[in-house]
Amino acid sequence: TALVDTGADFSVMSSRLATALRKVLTPWSGPQIRTAGGHVVTPIGVCTSRIQIRGVTFPGCFAVLPECSKDLILGLDFLWEYGAVINLQELIVSFSTQGPVDDDTVPRRAKLCVCDDQVVIPSRTSMFVTVECDNSPSTRGIAETNISLLLGRQVCVARGIIELNSGRTELLVTNFGSEPQCLPGKTAIAYFEELCEFAGQHALSEIPASVEAPTTPIKTDVNPNLPSHQKRCLEGIIESFRDCFASTSKVRQTPITKHRIIVDANQRPLCQPPYRVSSKERDAIRRQVQEMLQDDVIQPSTSPWASPV
């Protein structure tokens, strides 16, 4: 039997039980643990074990204490990882037997699980971890992190395309937390979704006439001290991407996106004093503001919020 303790940050196993199960201990690199009685103790090590609940096996990582009132305590780390739901009225604790997914509409994906018996990732460290996927022996696909592992233990896998060889590959796993994290074997650190290859063909009924490139050069303000060959190269790059630049100062606003600044109703407006600028800079600012006003890019404002230049 095990004690479910929602006030314990770590799952705990007594040294008596660890010895009886012949568990291999690895050094404990986490903080000291304060017991319910207020005593501060240091675990003698950490071990992994598989807990069987109603016929379902749940692998977990346990701090081993020299003295403990209970042989096994399931803490918040274990409860969070397996989505425990506590029903106080019925005095029942239920665990999820399915790995979480980011969106309920997404079909269930294959798990990428740790191959070794356990992997310890130091705090604020990234390291490669060998994982295996039983459902996809050799193929390419997208790996996405286990959101529960990220939220509960601050361990994340970057989303990217991976290639499985005989069902195995290596993933770059990052521990963003301030404490080392022990990942027992068979822990699902990511999910795998196989890539689908599509080949599309499109045909045009008529070949459009080629459009001649505009011959009007773009006005550029290039540093005159730049060497001539570098200047020509820069102007060539600008010319090749000339469709990204406006040919007129009347750019105007766009109706594609809308922007709002939402603030608290009780928030008082902020009104900052103007920045100090030289007279030459102020003339340039005034000239640019007048141009934007004429082009209807900006409009006068009487808002109490202000951060003028």
From TrEMBL:
InterPro entries: Aspartic_peptidase_AS, DNA/RNA_pol_sf, Peptidase_A2_cat, Peptidase_aspartic_dom_sf, RTL1-rel. PROSITE patterns: ASP_PROT_RETROV (PS50175), ASP_PROTEASE (PS00141). The keyword Hydrolase applies. Keywords: Hydrolase. Pfam families: Asp_protease_2. Residues 1-14 form the Peptidase A2 domain. One of its GO terms (biological process) is proteolysis. One of its GO terms (molecular function) is aspartic-type endopeptidase activity. PANTHER family: LDOC1 RELATED, TRANSPOSON TY3-I GAG POLYPROTEIN. This is Putative tick transposon.
